[in-house]
Amino acid sequence: MSHTPHELAEEFPEHGALIHHMRMTDGHFHRLANEYHEVNRTIHRAETDVEPMDDLHVAELRKRRMRLKDEIYTMLVRHEPAPAPVTEG
Questions:
Q1: C-alpha 69: how far from its chain's center?
Q2: Which DSSP helix (H) or strand (E) runs through 76?
Q3: What is the rounded distance in angstroms from the CA atom of residue 68 to the CA atom of residue 8?
Q4: For the segment 13-58, what is each residue's pLDDT rounded down to a tens digit?
Q5: Distance (Å, rounded) from C-alpha 22 to C-alpha 52?
Q6: pTM: predicted TM-score of the whole model, two decimal places
Q7: Contact 48, 30 (CB under 8 A)
């Protein structure tokens, strides 16, 4: 299978660990990431003529991908890390 550009880990390489963590712990984030992944794959299949579609539909999918990416990014930068455990010294 060919490489699919625009995967979340490539779009936000500095947030790779956080993306994984939030997919495991935040149901809303998990759903957004899955939807982004599906839309991104559909766009890639259309662009590579695996599943051709009209330009208008591809443009709408690209807008949807951008909205999802914006929402995902907002969640990533607003994520509050868990406090570090207190150790007695």
A1: 6
A2: helix 55-78
A3: 11
A4: 999 999 999 999 999 999 999 999 999 999 999 999 999 999 999 9
A5: 33
A6: 0.83
A7: no
For 3-39, b/e burial (b = at least 16 CB within 10 A) is: eeebebeeebeebeebbeebbeeeeebeebbeebbeb
Integer Cα distance of 77 and 73 in angstroms: 6
Round to whole Å and give the CA distance between 39 and 16.
20
Give the torsion sign (CA, 74, 11, 49, 54).
positive
Instruction: Compute the distance between CA of residue 41 and CA of residue 53 in angstroms, rounded to an integer.
Output: 13
For 8-56, the three-class secondary structure string (H helix, E strand, C coil) is HHHHCHHHHHHHHHHHHHCHHHHHHHHHHHHHHHHHHHHHCCCCCCCHH
Tens-digit pLDDT profile for residues 2-20: 568 899 999 999 999 999 9
